[in-house]
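Structure ticket #2291
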Amino acid sequence: MVKITPIEKFDPRVWGITVNFIVLDELEEKNVNFKDGSSHKTKDFLIADNTANILFNLWDDNINLVKKGKTYQANNARMTVFNGVMKLTTSKTSEIKEINEKIIPNLDNKMGEKKFKPAKKIFF
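Resolution: structure written out below.
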């Protein structure tokens, strides 16, 4: 059985997260140009479970995998910190699937408003 991590337990150093959530809102899609000359689309979605809410940052084709008002499970997701704001995002091995689960969103515990320093990379 898969271990579901509540949003309130998210930490900047965590990878391999499985979370069930409802999409509350979609923010504006942006185009990002990388130094290597490639161009990518990115979009943030406000998501929540019954413990907290957070921004879920999706890129390129993954943007079309979620819709406002629907519930999903993200597997093997990870945390990132950008400009001091912690967000959930995907990795190359992440999966997002729609689920049939009633989620009463917690609108008060805003994980995205908590400021974090970027996690230090550990080299071996």
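Closing remark: Strands lie at 15-26, 30-33, 39-48, 53-59, 71-82, 85-89, 95-98.
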